[in-house]
Amino acid sequence: ITWRALHTLPVLALAPRSLWPWAFFLVESLSTVYICCSSLALIRRSDHSDLATARERSLKSRPIKPAVAVLIPTVNEVREVLGPTLRAAAAIDYPSLEVIVLDDDKGPKAQSTGNPKERVHAWLPALCQECGVRYLRRTSSVDAKVGNLNFGISNTQADVILVLDADFRAEANILWRTVGLLDDRVALVQTPQHYYSSDPIQDNLGGETAWTEEQRHFFDVVLPARDAWGNALCVGTGFVVRRDALGPDGFVTGCLSEDVYSGYELLSRGYEIRYLNECLSHGAAADTLPEYIRQRVRWCQGIVQALWLPHGPLRAAGLRLLDRLFYIEMPLYWVSEFGFLACVLIAPLLYLWAGLTVFTCSLDDALSYVLPRLVAVSMVSYWMSKGRVMPVITEIKKLVGVVYILGAIFSLVVEPHGKPFVPTLKNEPCDRIRVHMDILLPFLI
């Protein structure tokens, strides 16, 4: 960075040949700041498996165990997805258990029967009865998923809430492993998300066995590190939370990332979040490229949106400075990494069309400064992530959504309280990525 600042930049002036190199340098520096912050965070790891085992034995020996309600919110999932989820939830090994399906389908919508008045979930009450679980359907769609969860909480007296997405199949021992970790200080225990299907990029490039799916880095490396610093996150599914810690209104509303937002609200009130890195549930990865992109756009918007919310991680009272710094790292990832990738993609076009260079240096300097940095960042990222962050493959995953993610960030900056940005994408015919060497090779160069 010192070399870049002192030896590769032109004199700052109001001209494209000066402003473009300086803009590229600032985005590059922001990306470097993120790399350093994330690497520093990863120097610590936590492992609560032994504690979970001890607490499990203690919980089983107690004559009275906390009552648990398993909440499964659903909107328009098909029977093939919901059926295994409900059967797995009903088979959870725990004495005081109630499984509740929260149907947010507001129909009418046409089904394969051709009846336009038939709701998508007209078959769901019968499926719930067959599986031995409780069925609830609210009359409004206020606050989307978090509103649906709060509706479920208001209809149960359970001491502990387990939240499962409609496509997540719980292991039978999920409650024995997690409920015992809850105590006066620990309000929420999060478990990782594992997937029984490959994501679209793995599927298209034949990488199901060649590399791990994208979220393994976050759940296997990042969250254990954040937990070690006392800043674990709630990530929306596969977690248990104490009902009394949530308060009478349940989860906080007003943010697209209601899970992270609610977790930070608990931290601001002095509670702790624990991360138990054990595979206790399996879900379905996004099965089409448009859904893959929409999912990441939604995550990005929620994380960035929370920056200026009144009870957000930067404005809420009661949070440590470390909590706020760890939160800033998340929007910094979306802005810096995808912003830098966009600059890298734009740079060759500006050079070809307008002759604008990013910077000028000799071949010796390129071999001495540029190449070692690229190699070092790739090697360190691969090492610290235990092979979850792979050179080239990780960049391809970012590349497919870069335009939409930057569009989402821009829409929030222009209109912070406006409607969320939703990419207009069709599932057909672009439900598979077509990556050819004639496209990939120039990008790598």
Walk me through this protein's architecture.
This protein is α/β, with parallel strands linked by helices and 445 residues long. The chain has helices spanning 2-7, 16-41, 49-61, 79-90, 124-131, 144-153, 174-178, 200-205, 215-228, 243-246, 258-268, 289-305, 321-354, 363-384, 393-399, 402-414, 437-444; strands spanning 68-74, 97-103, 134-137, 160-163, 169-170, 186-190, 194-195, 239-242, 272-275, 281-283. The protein has 17 helices and 10 strands. The strands form 2 sheets. It has a 7-stranded mixed beta sheet with strand order 3-2-1-4-8-6-9, with helices on both faces. Strands 5-10-7 form a 3-stranded mixed beta sheet. α12 (289-305) packs parallel to α16 (402-414) and α13 (321-354) crosses α16 (402-414). The radius of gyration is 24 Å and the shape is elongated. The chain starts with a helix and ends with a helix. The model is unreliable at 110-114 and 428-439 (pLDDT under 50).
